[in-house]
């Protein structure tokens, strides 16, 4: 199966603020109106998508034909009954990333890829085992970020409504709302209850921020990448070119709490750092592997250190795994999230949609990091006090008061010093 990388998503979770590219909208038009299938046709359409594309040809050891027979032998009086049947059908795959979205949920996924959204600026997921609604990460310079919500916060209620037993999509819909309206989130952080009243806003998301910082061996180019949205590669290219013009001696790339995004963005950004070598390979249900290889488009060969943590997922892991395996960068921080699966998102005839896991990906050395993550070269754990201090004062991030950043600069400086000594010895 050929995989068109521009139609694939790698987000670690279903996000309250995700940016995705939709593959094959599946809309049929008649006289200017969208043609809506019958409920039973919808069920069969989803079954067919899974049958043709799902990454596991055993369908989690299910008799997939028997599943089709069971659900097509039922009668459905409306679309809602069909939606319930489809969700039941997909749940049997036990894959949290393969999921059905009703028209509202599907619309929520189609947030403008220009990077603008309306909400509070948090990315949330639902734990597979406990079903708890958890903050993956707040987006920088948003109401959630400024209020102090943190990765790992468990949302227990939204405007007083308990999230126990709540579907992720329902939580997303409750959190979203008109600009300037408010929403109250109650969370548990390390078993401590906290309340946040947030004012919703229109948010322009710029996934890349950069600056020049001082280091022991000269100036350092610091780049913070918060997500792999459609504009991430262009902004990364601009950042590297601007920092090269400032003649920095090396780079620190911060991927902490970056939950992923678009596959093509991770590949394009990898090309900017890796001049030669494999970036990633994807393997489909038939064992067919497609390899993405760097094509001599690197913008710099200066030393690079990457900071990662448990919130660095999927597309972040493709980039960091490629840099690590090609010996292009040293990784500092903590073990990454561990999502090595690729989804395509398909629109269905009635405006609903389905995300289907169609492949797994491997790092250049052949590592399958799904549920394992990537171990950094230098592990730097933050204490609760250190994490709270950085959350309380975001200006401390990427300063000597940030232990992971401080270690990254130390490792970068050692690398620069070593290169200089080798160059002197060669003369």
Describe this protein's structure.
The chain has 427 residues and is an alpha+beta fold. The protein contains 11 helices and 22 strands. 30% of the residues lie in helices and 26% in strands. Strands 1, 4, 16, 17, 20 and 21 form a 6-stranded antiparallel β-sheet that branches. Strands 6, 7, 8, 9, 10 and 11 form a 6-stranded antiparallel β-sheet that branches. Strands 13-14-15-18-19-22 form a 6-stranded mixed β-sheet, with helices on both faces.
CATH architecture field of the largest domain: Alpha-Beta Complex
CATH class of the largest domain: Alpha Beta
Class of secondary structure makeup: alpha+beta
Cα-atom radius of gyration? 22 Å
Q: Layout of SSEs?
A:
Layout: E1 8-9, E2 29-30, E3 33-34, H1 39-53, H2 64-72, H3 79-91, E4 99-101, H4 103-109, E5 116-119, E6 122-126, E7 133-138, H5 143-147, E8 154-158, E9 161-162, H6 168-175, E10 182-189, E11 192-199, E12 201-204, E13 208-215, E14 218-225, H7 232-245, E15 250-254, H8 263-273, E16 278-283, E17 289-293, E18 304-308, H9 315-325, E19 330-333, E20 341-347, E21 353-362, E22 378-379, H10 384-392, H11 403-426
Parallel strand pairs: 14-15, 15-18, 18-19, 19-22
Antiparallel strand pairs: 1-20, 2-3, 4-21, 5-12, 6-7, 7-8, 8-9, 8-10, 10-11, 13-14, 16-17, 16-21, 20-21
Helix pairs in contact: 1-2, 1-3, 7-8, 8-9
Domain PDZ: 106-176
InterPro entries: ClpP/crotonase-like_dom_sf, Cterm_S41_CtpC, PDZ, PDZ_6, PDZ_sf, Peptidase_S41A, Tail-specific_protease
Protein name: Carboxyl-terminal-processing protease
